[in-house]
């Protein structure tokens, strides 16, 4: 069948072809406006783009000023108002089941004792300066001590490295067993069990300040721009090493510790950052200068030993305290424990290449990077406030309350 208007059809086709050729020709000479690298495009849930023009920064104060002028705390708090209002302003969203609820005054009637004494019997890392006489809620006083002289009539015995006695008779102290490792394995001989998980008798998170004392908490205002990531590990687990290597091979980094070390040996942090040295004359230990060394990097890679629900350890909290942005692999419910927009959750990326591209983009955008510090500067804690309140720092009072509810020595065996 012949077309009625063959000339018109051919003309239209030629015009379309010419238009295409013109666009193709000028594409190499015309520069179209690029997508801006903004805090929206770099958000945890939004799409991610590569920076079209590198604008690296090293000074945190400069990054903060840019963020203040373009975003600001009012806008950040408005974006996280649900978390703020849920706690009456403190930023804690109390609806999560990952954290135990600390009782109010309405639970004071459950206490059976006005004073509780806890004797710590077996331990490895529980610090000596936790020993004290504490004023707790509801008028309860709590003596926590490693000394059998000071706690001569304990209401509870705490065991962390050794198992409790097999049998408890009427009138004996309650047996408390503590296991903060991912297995959460009960001894089978305890009356009270402490772990990192909310389902157990008493929860103790890793978010406190008492795990290691005497550190240099100096925080550098300047960030390395040629070396983006800090990582340190001396327990070289195969899976963790594999994950770390797959990401670090794509990013400029310093790897301290025994695993994947690329800084010329152990204990090199003080050679790179002498200002991080402790004032004491004792031989430095790696944790003495940990925070200070981390603070020189824009990012800290934090990989848990195992990805277990609620197992969020000091690896993440040390990085937050240092003023770096953690790149985290671990607990699937990690957001129940931390401030909003405070970490890069590695599990949300489809590949290590995508994650590395995001990290590089973030390192070159002062405003987007400063957004990861807004929780601290604007006072938006999210669940982090409650996580801190359930740490080792507050364990003495919370354990004493549990012992008091059970009646201490008067509890039936």
From TrEMBL:
What EC number(s) has UniProt assigned to this enzyme? Answer: 2.4.1.-
Pathway(s) it belongs to: Protein modification; protein glycosylation
Fucosyltransferase C-terminal domain mapped to chain residues:
225-406
One Gene Ontology term of the molecular function aspect: alpha-(1->3)-fucosyltransferase activity
List, alphabetically, the Pfam families matched.
Glyco_transf_10
Tell me the keywords, alphabetical order. Glycosyltransferase, Golgi apparatus, Membrane, Transferase, Transmembrane
Entry membrane topology: Single-pass type II membrane protein
Q: Where in the cell is it found?
A: Golgi apparatus, Golgi stack membrane
InterPro entries linked to this entry = Alpha-1_3/4-FUT_pln, Glyco_tran_10_C, Glyco_trans_10, GT10-like_C_sf
**GO (cellular component) term, any one:** Golgi cisterna membrane
Question: What is the protein's major site of localization?
Answer: Golgi
Q: Which family does it belong to?
A: Belongs to the glycosyltransferase 10 family.
Q: Can you say what this protein is called?
A: Fucosyltransferase
> Which species does the entry assign this protein to?
Linum trigynum
